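Task: sequence in, structure out. Protein: Elongation factor 4.
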Amino acid sequence: TDLAHIRNFAIVAHIDHGKSTLADRLIETCGGLAAREMTSQVLDSMDIERERGITIKAQTVRLLYRAKDGQDYTFNLIDTPGHVDFAYEVSRSMRACEGALLLVDATQGVEAQTLANAYQAIDANLELLPVLNKVDLPAAEPERIKQQIEDIIGLDASDALQISAKTGLGVPDVLEAIVKYLPPPTGDADAPLQALVIDSWYDPYLGVVTLFRVRNGVIRKGQKIRFMGTGAAHPVDRVGVMTPKPLLMDALGPGSVGFFTAAIKDIADARVGDTITDDRKPATVALEGFRPSQPVVFCGMYPAEADSYETLRDSLGKLRLNDASFEFEPESSGALGLGFRCGFLGLLHLEIIQERLEREFDLDLVITAPSVVYRVHMTDGTSYELHNPADYPDVTKIDHVEEPWIKASIMVPDEFLGPVLALCQEKRGVQQDMTYVGNRAMVVYRLPLNEVVFDFYDRLKSISRGYASFDYQLDGYGESDLVKLDILINSDKVDSLSMIVHRSMAELRGRNTCEKLQQLIPRQMFQVAIQAAIGGKIVARETVKAFRKDVLAKCYGGDISRKRKLLDKQKEGKKRMRQVGQIEIPQEAFLAALKMS
Ligand code: GTP
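Result:
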């Protein structure tokens, strides 16, 4: 295909504005799949994603379209994830495109992620085509939303398309508009190969699969390619495109988006953002890469039963093969035994990995409190990054501690503004900006990330009845008055319940945690004292009274098999418990203790 007949684009939208539905419709209209092969959301390959309706892995699909001018076009639709945790993956998908559809729900209007994604697209020099979705709904207000797009994003929306991805209304116009308004790629087929690695993942049948976008030159089967960043060179086994099923090709030239496989063992060799070139005729310069994604939230993951440790390690390794933004390393805890400290892009990312481990690998897990990465500066002039509150050093040796901050943009209808501001204030936020568009406010706050990982998002949603939308980016580190809060159970410090909190919040959080634990820890044969301490000082205390839970008492001596059943049942219940000293703590306690306000 010549370049003039290629269009590479993404669909960017706020969550639930209909991106996947539109993508499905485009695929269907272009006949990329026979109708019987259509599942509900073709682009989301992992079941769990489908369930959550969130696309994690950036994927691509090649579509063939015969336009009204009678000519055939190749479209590469690059899928982008919709959640704030994955903003980085959005930016890397955009690097493979010349244009994007800015999809806005005509009943909801511009939301925080519409704005964030639109700005990212503008930064990446993409041509943006505004599209109003869900106009089949009676509540749609296309004229008002057009005005909003102009006022908030500064994009001419007078000709915005009005469609229903659900009914198919206006979808043919979208295809025509892609041809007409989005620019074709540029590039030189005769120049040395330069292709950008958009993504790479491990496929059990094919090995490492690398998704790329060719800028210059041609990538072909049998060619020996080299990754310019790592220097690794491999002969190419297969080249192909996703339709969305893989379709093998002999070669792909400038402007193309496709995948290749080679005998690559480790996805670390096919680093996202690296440049692929020809080993024999290499390019002199690499393409501008992506900024690497950094895990920002860490927690401990432990097997509920110690003998699943190996399985957990293997499973984490397998997940990591497909998700380079997730990290893990072994750690041990007095309360929980052997496990792993894992790093994630955000809380949602953590939940997804946790669910996959439990579901796909059938593991029972105990997860410890999520923590951000602190920078600890010692009096001797050294400093280091702290990923685990349990490793907090002796306070007398600490000079000062810095914590990560974020810049959050929140869009919220007027009537909920008061509670939203109060929430930001309570979370130690510093207001930066506030503007109004119609009856909605956009507020920008700097907030400590450690306050946001607790329960900020859930509370924002509940105080605004779901109407507030939220987007954030990391915004540097700042010195803070932080202390380590320890939880003691019958005087034993439970390392996996330690947390680092701002001094002003420490007592309250200590009290809340003790109360929560008191409700969650079942009565034992002896009294259990739950205490919170800062340094050596006890700031809160609760007690669980003694009680004997004798399941056999119910059985009046009789049937032995019934007795055994009851004992087995009790044993089953025990699996989900963790022994701390002489006390068993249900695993919910480790997380629930942190989800409170
Ligand atoms: P994420 O993948 O979670 O980011 O969401 P998304 O933006 O891909 O949204 P999705 O396509 O899953 O659509 C969200 C909801 O809106 C679904 O229930 C769709 O059925 C519905 N929806 C999408 N397009 C339309 C439309 O044109 N009209 C109506 N009435 N509903 C629509």
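The radius of gyration is 27 Å.
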